[in-house]
Amino acid sequence: MRKKIFFMAIIFVFSTIFSFSYGAIDQTYVERILKENSDFIAFIDYGVTNFAPDKKEELFNIYQKHFNGEIAYLQGDYKRAFDSVYDSQKDMVALYEKILTDYYLEDSKNILDNIAPEIIKSKDAAARQYLTLGYRDRTLARTHYTVGEASHPKLYSYKLYKYVDAINMARRAKRYGFIAIYTGQPHAIKFKIYNQLFKSENENGSLFFKRFVDKNEQDFIKELDKTYEDYEKEFSAEGNQAANASTDKSQQEKVIKEIPFEGKVERSVRFRKEQRVARYLLNGEFDKAEPIIRGYVDNYNFKLITATLKTLSSLDHTGEEARQRLNYESLLKHHNDNYMLFNGKSMLESVQGDAKVIDSLSSAKKNNVVEDDVKTIETQGEKKEDKPAENSSVNK
User: Fold this and answer.
1) What pTM was computed for the model?
2) What is the pLDDT of residues 11-50, one digit of tens each?
3) Taking Cα atoms as reference points, which of 98, 128, 101 lies closest to residue 112?
4) What is the 8-class DSSP label of residue 260?
5) Which letter does DSSP use for residue 319 in this model?
6) Hey, where are the domains in the chain?
7) Range name among 196-205, 251-260, 289-298, 333-342 with the lowest pLDDT average
8) 162: which of 83, 187, 222, 279 is 20 to 30 A away, CA to CA?
9) How far lies 172's CA from each of 104, 126, 300, 325, 336, in Å?
10) CA-to-CA distance for 45 and 53, rounded, in angstroms?
């Protein structure tokens, strides 16, 4: 009786293992890991495109395996789809580790270390706090990387999740560093930064604060003292002048269409808010101006830091200041990456068209081999056909 129970238990254990190993790889599971793997590839594409274009071939090999996993899923071969995704993640772990350590962890530390002297010199409490938060997040990024690296070697998906967290923390550390750069600037530089911000917005079609852009202090105050009635007359005159600048009627219609439509009530509200913002900026009350500006400038934080880096890179420095000045222009690519924007054409998009269906190629080769074998057999059969014997002695 005991032997019977023992053998039944063994059979039950083996059947459970067998059903688990094959039952787990079903359509729903493979569909989920394919979506997960696609997100991993799209995420690392930003790092490869912005910092490591020499890793294009490695990214292509990873996508090639994922692509064939998608094909196997469509064919209903879920086991082969799972194997393709698993192989893709194995290669992706190595690429993530390289990009994370050489660019995100290393660059975030270098950026924070390079801006630290300027922040400390400014004696601005808020800027120092932002710098502290940047160092904190950089440490968290390192911690996530260590946890992922120390995990089981075969748990590729878990490693990738931890590396994604590490990259996001490194990006946030750099963002805090860039905010610290802006916050630590004196009143005169911040005024120039906002001028650059509004100038960029006006070039993209915005009317807000256009009449104050690039004005010297005297003209700025003169514009500030205008009444709405004076502004309305000038606004109408400018529109008529722009429309009548060309004698060509079609050109006039084109100019009129390019002028943004704005109702009178909306224009009067904008005028009053421009007056308030101008006074705040002139008095150095930038925190009071910010809520109003956010209503007219989308993605305010990103554009403010962009204007900060462009303004600081355009300032003239001589002597010791020029030697110690940061290369703010080079920080723009990090700033774009922080908001998951490409600095050029996506590497993933450039290699997607080169992906091949490996299974189809293998099948074609096998079919060619089979056809060659059939032809060989047929030829050999033809050689072995019986022919009538010619024996002269018998015929005689």
Assistant:
1) 0.80
2) 554 454 444 444 457 899 999 999 999 999 999 999 999 9
3) 128
4) P
5) T
6) 32-183+347-358, 187-326
7) 251-260
8) 83
9) 11, 17, 16, 23, 12
10) 10
